[in-house]
Amino acid sequence: MSLEVEGLSIVLDGRRVVDDVSFGVADGARVGLIGESGSGKSLTALAVLGLLPDGAEVDGSIRWNGRELLGLRDRELAALRGEQIGIVFQEPQTALNPLRTVGRQIAEPLRIHGRVGRRDALARAQADADRVRLPEGALRRYPHQLSGGQRQRVAIAMALAARPRLLIADEPTTALDVTIQAEILALLGELVDDDGMSLLFITHDLAVLSQVATEAVVLERGRVVETGAVADLLTAPRSEVTRGLLRDATATVWRPEGDA
C-alpha cells in the first residue's frame, strides 16, 4: 500500500498554514517530513488521518492505496486509524488515558479492529509489551507510574497492535533525553523492518531523521523547499532551510563522516 499527497493546502483561522504540499510514501519506504516549528509538518501528518482542528479548511488530495481520504466521513476514517495507518504522537503523557491500565490501552486497538475477545486481546497486549521491551508487570500499571521512555513504548505498542501498513511518527522522541531517544529510534526502525511497514517520520532534527529515514521532504512556512535522499541532504543540501537544519544537527548529535 502507498500514501500519495498532492497539492495539499490547509487554512486555519484564515491563515494558509500548508500550501500546495505534495509527496508520496511507497510501500515499505521510510520518508521524513522535516522543518522548523511552524513549517506545517505535523498538520500535514494530521490531515492524513482527518485529525485536524475543527474549522480547518483542506484542499488537494490524500490517497491511501488509491482511495481518496479527504471528504471521508469520520466513521470511515476511524476504521483506517490503527488498522491500516497507525500514529505515535510526540507526548505520550497526553495521548494515553490516565485512568486505564497500560494493558487495557494496548489491548483496545485489538478489541476495536481485531474483533478478538478480552482474554485474547490481553494476551496479545503482553506479547506487544514484550516486543517494545516494557518491563515485567507494566501492563498492570497506569501511565503516570512509568517513565517517559516507557510511556512512549506503550504508545508505539498501541500504534502497532493491529499491525498497520503505515506508521506515522510525529516527533516521537522530542521530549526524551538523548540516550532514551536513541533507544526509541532503534526500536522504531527494528519494528518497521520486522512488520514490513512504511514509515512517515515527522521531526525538526536532521540528526534524528538520518537514523530512521532514507528520503526526506523539507518544509518551510507550509511549502516544500527541498526533497531528496537523506544522505544527499546531509552532504549537499540545496536550500538555506536544509543548511540551517544541518548546522543544528551537527551542533547536537550527528557528525559528518570523518569529522572529529
Structure description:
- Helices cover 39% and strands 25% of the residues.
- With 260 residues, the chain is of the alpha/beta class.
- The strands form two sheets. A six-stranded mixed beta sheet has the order 6-7-8-3-9-10, sandwiched between helices.
- The longest helix has 18 residues, at 178-195.
- The protein is globular, with a radius of gyration of 18 Å.
Topology:
Elements: E1 3-12, E2 15-25, E3 30-34, H1 41-48, E4 57-64, E5 67-68, H2 74-80, E6 85-88, H3 92-95, H4 102-114, H5 118-131, H6 148-160, E7 166-170, H7 178-195, E8 198-203, H8 206-212, E9 215-220, E10 223-229, H9 230-235, H10 240-250
Parallel strand pairs: 3-8, 3-9, 6-7, 7-8
Antiparallel strand pairs: 1-2, 1-4, 4-5, 9-10
Helix pairs in contact: 4-5, 4-6, 5-6, 6-7
For the biggest β-sheet, the strand order reads 6-7-8-3-9-10
Radius of gyration: 18 Å
The shape is: globular
Q: Find the CATH superfamily of the largest domain.
A: P-loop containing nucleotide triphosphate hydrolases
**Largest sheet at a glance?**
6 strands, mixed
Top CATH class of the largest domain: Alpha Beta
Number of strands: 10
Strand fraction: 15-25%
GO molecular function, one term: ATP binding
Keywords: ATP-binding, Cell membrane, Membrane, Nucleotide-binding, Transport
Subcellular location: Cell membrane
Domain ABC transporter: 3-246
